[in-house]
Amino acid sequence: MDEPLTIRFDTRSECAAQWRAVIVRARARLDMFDPDFSVFPLGSSEVDAQLRAFLHGGGVLRLALHEPAHIERDAPRFLRLLRDYSHLVECRQTPRSLRQLTDSFCIADGLHVLRRFHSDWPRGEAAFDVPDAADLPSHRFAAIWEESRPTLAPSVAGL
After folding, report:
1. Cα-flanking dihedrals φ and ψ of residue 4, to 5°?
2. pTM of the model
């Protein structure tokens, strides 16, 4: 295990860099929640390559979100990834009763976590090799996941 590390960030580019650092460290499970994933470059070739390597190694990716429109419109690479790895990727949409949730987080293997305090702002923190930092987001993700329903089903149509 590496030395525990916590990094605060305030800009969109710092947020994206720390998010990619969490993804790179993931081995078995990657859980992410964001209202629409517009701030995260799911459609970029770099992230596509990182996620494909993660999934090729047997990792499981779960995304929970309020609205899938941004991904459907602006992330065709992610939609292909979803189709190619449908047995390892699942996306769920929250019910209306949870739409007031405005934070955002990404958890890798229960050890690494990126948290944005509010989805309208890039400010937040990333913690690496800090299981305690991932506890609350992990519990919140489990509750959100349980209440949410499948969305972004992989299909050949439209891709």
Report:
1. -60, 140
2. 0.90
Q: Are strands 89-93 and 60-65 parallel, antiparallel or unpaired?
A: parallel
Which pair of tokens denotes residue 16? 């994206």
94: region left, alpha or beta (phi > 0 left; psi from -120 to 50 alpha): beta
Q: Which domains does the chain have, with CATH numbers?
A: 5-112+123-151 (3.30.870.10)
Task: Return contacts of 82-87, CB within 8 angstroms, 24+ apart.
Answer: 82/152, 82/154, 83/154, 83/155, 83/156, 83/159, 84/52, 85/52, 85/55, 85/61, 86/154
* CA 24 remoteness from chain centre: 12
Query: Look-up: residue for tokens 């990657």?
Result: 30
- In the structure encoding, which two tokens stand for residue 134, read together? 């991932």
Q: Over the stretch 70-117, which tens digit does the pLDDT of each residue have? A: 999 999 999 999 999 999 999 999 999 999 998 999 999 999 999 999
What dihedral angle (degrees, nearest 10) is formed by the CA atoms of 80, 83, 88, 93?
90
Residue 133, pLDDT score: 92
